[in-house]
Design goal:
- With about 400 residues, this protein is an alpha/beta fold.
- It has four domains: about 5-25 and about 175-320, 3-Layer(aba) Sandwich (Molybdenum Cofactor Biosythetic Enzyme, Chain A); about 30-50 and about 140-175, Molybdopterin biosynthesis moea protein, domain 2, CATH 3.90.105.10; about 55-140, Molybdopterin biosynthesis moea protein, domain 3 (Molybdopterin biosynthesis moeA protein, domain 3); about 330-410, MoeA, C-terminal, domain IV (Beta-clip, Beta Barrel).
- The protein has helices at about 10-20, 65-70, 160-165, 205-215, 230-245, 260-270, 300-320, 375-380; strands spanning about 30, 45, 55, 60-65, 75-80, 95-100, 110-115, 120, 125, 135-140, 150, 170-175, 180-185, 190, 200-205, 220-225, 245-250, 270-275, 280, 285-290, 295-300, 330-335, 345-355, 360-365, 385, 400-405.
- A hairpin with a 2-residue loop joins strand 8 and strand 9 (about 125).
- Helix 1 runs parallel beside helix 7 and helix 4 packs parallel to helix 7.
- The protein is elongated and about 95 Å long.
- The structure holds ligand LQZAQKY5 and molybdate ion.
- Molybdate ion binds near residues 281, 299, 301 and 372.
- Molybdate ion binds near residues 280, 281, 299, 301 and 304.
């Protein structure tokens, strides 16, 4: 291991140190289900109904009683049942009822025979296949019973959850209040998009990356803009951010250069929990506590800022907002197609393209140059190639771990 990576803490240790310190917000609000996408449930959702609410047909066909089928003769039609218009009338022995999918099953019906297993015979219907009792009947409450908890607290509401709530006739849901997150970029070289660049200047991309990810996570963003490399200005930004937010996220100035003041500010205005991780990119990431808020200092290099937000800040925000399930997709094994350059010492998050190989196995290709300034590597990639801390170069054909991108990175 390189000597200058020896004292760095591991990603797991860093995550654990962060998560151990924080507890979820316990403030909630009630929202219409139409405005609750992306939010986290603050309490279990209890079903007020049985689903389905009544026994109904799974097929277009004929509702029958088993005794009427026993003689093997065609059955006359006693009437019809539609979804929304149940059968009402007499059902004499030796008859069946025409029934459509979703229609309430008439009282006494023991099975529904799908249309394709019947034939017209004179005025009646003949059944051409074996019928078993109960077939094609969807029973009341077989999906959800009245009083069941259909969603636990801590569930992120999306297209799998909100329609479920709607199907129960529930119009409002109790969710955790949005996290307030203050963000700013630091650096004299930074210009906002839309301004011309003078010599030595670059555009501020990190604030935009962080903002987009926070929007997708349903956070309320307090954007303090670009802060110059000046301790006074930086102190003012820290104080305002801490006053207004639950979490403060800066980018840049966390390394050891002469204009890198972020860590000193954290030391002065709060308490540092850790600084410098054995990950690449993202080594100088800093985490700590201010008077009122949690602080995350992202490194200035754009890939480093995105990787540390994704790998460290995202789980922190998930825990604060009470989210129960993991924020990151599980890792999988894939075969490297291309050579991957790697120096032992830090866990490496290279950007890759994962696909299915000829024999069905996952295979992964590097996006090329892995410098922490090469942001285009993200737009080409669909996963991280996660290379263990002690590993050296990877030759084509070797197995590696990949972590598919989640929705924050377009996965
Ligand atoms: N002597 C050492 N130098 C550096 C080390 C080290 O361990 N020893 N670590 C390197 C690593 S790794 C990283 S990552 C960077 C982190 O530096 P800072 O967080 O202090 O960031 P800056 O110096 O302010 O900027 C680094 C780089 O990124 C550009 N940048 C900054 N902010 C933005 C932004 N909002 N949008 C786009 N680009 C940004 C900046 O211009 C620099 O090029 O330190 C290494 N150095
Ligand atoms: O950690 Mo830096 O983020 O390697 O470029």
């Amino acid at each position: 291991m390189e000597s200058f990576t020896a004292g760095l803490i591991s990603l797991e240790e860093a995550r654990q140190k962060m998560l151990d310190r924080l507890s979820p917000l316990n403030e909630s609000e009630t929202l219409s289900i139409y405005s609750a996408a992306g939010r986290i449930t603050a309490a279990p959702v209890i079903s007020p109904l049985n689903v389905p609410p009544f026994d109904n047909s799974a097929m277009d066909g004929y509702a029958v009683r088993m005794a009427d089928l026993a003689r093997g003769e065609a059955l006359a039609l006693a009437g019809k049942a539609f979804a929304g218009a149940p059968f009402s009338g007499e059902w004499p022995a030796g008859c069946c009822i025409r029934i459509m999918t979703g229609a309430p099953v008439p009282d006494g019906a023991e099975a529904v025979v799908m249309q394709e297993q019947t034939a017209a015979e004179g005025e009646g219907i003949r059944f051409t296949a074996e019928v078993s009792a109960g077939q094609n009947i969807r029973r009341a409450g077989e999906d959800i019973r009245q009083g069941d908890s259909v969603l636990a607290a801590g569930v992120r509401l999306g297209a799998a959850e909100l329609p479920l709530i709607a199907s129960l006739g529930i119009g409002e849901v109790e969710v955790v209040r949005r996290l307030r997150v203050a963000i700013f970029s630091t650096g004299d070289e930074l210009q906002p998009v839309g301004q011309p660049l003078a010599a030595g200047q670059i555009y501020d991309t990190n604030r935009f990356t962080v903002r987009l990810m926070l929007d997708q996570l349903g956070c309320e963003v307090i954007d303090l803009g670009i802060i110059r490399d000046d301790p006074q200005a930086l102190r003012a930004a820290f104080v305002q951010a801490d006053r207004e937010a639950d979490v403060v996220i800066s980018s840049g100035g966390v390394s050891v250069g002469e204009a890198d003041y972020t860590k000193a500010m954290l030391d002065e205005l709060g308490a540092i929990t850790f600084w410098k991780l054995a990950i690449k990119p993202g080594k100088p990431f800093a985490f700590g506590r201010l008077s009122n808020s949690w602080f995350c200092g992202l490194p200035g290099n754009p890939v480093s800022a995105a990787v540390t937000f994704y790998q460290l800040v995202q789980p922190l925000l998930a825990k604060l907002s009470g989210q129960q399930h993991a924020a990151l997709p599980p890792r999988q094994r894939a075969r490297a197609v291309t050579r991957l350059k790697k120096t032992p010492g830090r866990l490496d998050f290279q950007r890759g393209v994962v696909s299915r190989g000829a024999e069905g196995e996952l295979q992964v290709t590097s996006t090329g140059h892995q410098g922490s300034h090469v942001f285009s590597s993200f737009s080409q990639a669909n996963c991280f190639i996660v290379l263990e801390r002690e590993r050296g170069h990877v030759e084509p054909g070797e197995w590696v771990e990949i972590e598919p991108f989640n929705v924050l990175l377009g996965g």
